[in-house]
Amino acid sequence: MSAQVLSWQRVKQLPAPVWLMLWGNFFVRGSYFMVWPFLAVILYQRYDLSATETGFWLTSAALLAVVAGFYAGHLSDRFGRKPLMLAGALTGVLAFSALALADTLPLMLCCIFLATLPRALWDAPSKAWLGDLLPDSKDRELALQGLYFMVNAGAACGPVLGLWAGLSGNPHGFFITAASYGALGLGLMWLYRPGKLDSSTANSRPSHTLNFAAILQLLRQDQLFAVIILANILINFIYAHADSSLIQYLTRADFPDLVTLISSLVMVNSLIIVTCQFPLLRLLGHWPVIKRIHLGVVLLGLSQIWFALNPVDWFWGWLGAMAVLSIGEAILFANMNVHLDQLAHPALRGSYFGAASLYAIGYSLSPLIGGLILDALGGPALFAISAGLCALVLGCYATAPRLRRPDFSALKLPG
């Protein structure tokens, strides 16, 4: 076996369930990005919501997903991955079908809340399942890198297909997302058909018997993990401005041909990750994961400075800033998952990946706080503040290795 994470030999030996995760996420996220990035525009143009109102509702919905994702990861450790993943797929079918049909503001808001749940129910159990399937740490890193790659490949294709089909900004495009979740659920049921996966591979048996209160107590004792959670909450808060606050800023600045700019920003972001993620992994593969994360945070900070200084009407300037952010993202986010996998005990992968849903607090608060800052101070101030927060993130990562961790051996956990 090659010592390199990225090798053709490793790719060829990935089992069928891993490929289901990779291709399933590609199609789900591709259909999702046909329409979801335009949701802030829909709420503004159709229902005349202010930046603060839009931010409040998107934030509230995302916070619900944080709670659901945290608990879903714990449940997957106790009762197996399959029930939670199937629940996520079914919820996706129902939620996005309802979102496509919503025609009043109250109904639209209810559907937005429901539509945040599928990914929350799916994310932690599916990532933990990859760990169950792949005992070798380099195989797991390759799979997690590949998962992030396929999500962004879908995001690159989604806006292009949405524009081609006339779906960008059209809520009926959510039917395609619903169909993608349905196909993902059927693929999972096919893999779990009798005789296909044995119980150990499928993780149909509990990994531990610790209740949720005991898991919370354990996580409170893990000071290193707590600081990493804080740092990654801030990373998501900063990054999310590109998905929400930046779009609101450009919308209210009456940027000409706004839909084309938004689609271009999403495509630049995703295409750079598609073309650069694995070359960057090859280039930086000999670096410790923490150093890769440091580099990603520095590039994220530089992108925020560019956003702050860019003239509102300079189309190519926005794309250039997004390119810097995207290179940082290609390094940063996949390695955050790899780092989390390194921190988690094998029997607690679901709980740790579930706790990592707390990262989304930053993503959730970003539209609300970003909207408030936009209304009060304007876009340049918002991005300047975000650049300053990147320095705080670097400080958290520098401090974390000196902090205390629990004694997992005392818990007599399997694995």
Automatic annotation (TrEMBL):
The chain crosses the membrane at residues 20-44, 56-73, 93-117, 147-167, 173-192, 224-242, 262-281, 293-309, 315-338, 350-374, 380-400. InterPro entries: MFS, MFS_dom, MFS_trans_sf, MFS_Transporters. Residues 18-404 form the Major facilitator superfamily (MFS) profile domain. It is found in: Cell membrane. Its main location: membrane. The keyword Membrane applies. PROSITE patterns: MFS (PS50850). Keywords: Cell membrane, Membrane, Transmembrane, Transmembrane helix, Transport. The keyword Membrane applies. It is a multi-pass membrane protein. It comes from Rheinheimera tilapiae. This is MDR family MFS transporter. It comes from the Bacteria.
